[in-house]
Write the C-alpha cells for this entry.
Amino acid sequence: MNVKVLFFAGLREALGTGSESLVLPAGVATVGALRDHLVSRGEQWAALANMKNLRVAVNQQMVGLDAPLMAGDEVAFFPPVTGG
Amino acid sequence: MSVSVQEADFDAGAEIAALSDGRDDVGAVASFVGLVRADKQAEKVMPPAQPGAVSPADGAGGAPAVQAMTLEHYPGMTEKALQAIVAEAQGRWDIFGVRVIHRVGRLVPGDRIVFVAVASAHRGEAFAACEFIMDYLKTRAPFWKKEETAAGGRWVDARESDGHAAGRWEAPKNNG
C-alpha cells in the first residue's frame, strides 16, 4: 500500500524533509502505526515521536492517530497551527 | 462566500464594500484585520514592571523584537479548512456574505496578515460570526508562523488561550 506523507513547519525542519512517498509494510493500517513505522527507521525521526500535540490530517482532513489508512492516502503530520 | 490564501496585500475597504455591493438587505458588515506585531511579549500577561526596569518590548530581558515572520501553510488543505469554517458559521448565523483572506510568505511588523468580514442584516450576527471565524481559523486552519529576530528564527508556539477562545463556541448556542 502506497501513501504520501507530508511534514510542515517546525516538524519539517526538524526532520529535514517535507514529503516522501512510501510503501507501507503489512500491518501498518492506521495513522498511529504509520508514525511508529517512520520513527522506527532511525534516530533522525525522533522529532516525530517527541513532538507535543502532534496534529495529523489524512486527505486534508484533521484526524486522530487511530484513523485508518487506505492506499493512495495523503497523510500530513504537523505541529499545532499558529495562523491568524 | 469566498476565501483566499495569497502573498499579496489586500484592500480592506474594497473588500468590505464588495460585501454589500448591489444589494439592499445588508444592514451590517463586521470586519477584522490582523497585523504583524513587533513585540510578542505585549500579548502575554506580564508582572507589573519594576521601577526603572527596561520593558521587554525594548528587547532587553524578554523575547527579542520580531523583525519579520514567514507564514507557511498546507496548500489545498488550508482553503478547505477555511471553507469548512465559513460553512459552519453560515449554519450558525443568518449571514449573507463572508470574505476571508490570509496572507502567506514573508511579512514584516505593520503588515496586514488576515482579513475576515461578514455581512448580515443586523450587527449581532455579523459580530458573532466574524469572531467565530477568527477563533476557528486560529486553531483549525493549517498556517504556521516562524518569527525572525536578532537572535535567530523560531517557530511560534500555539497559545492555550486560542484553544479556549475557540472552545467557547462549542457549547450549545443558547447555553449562555
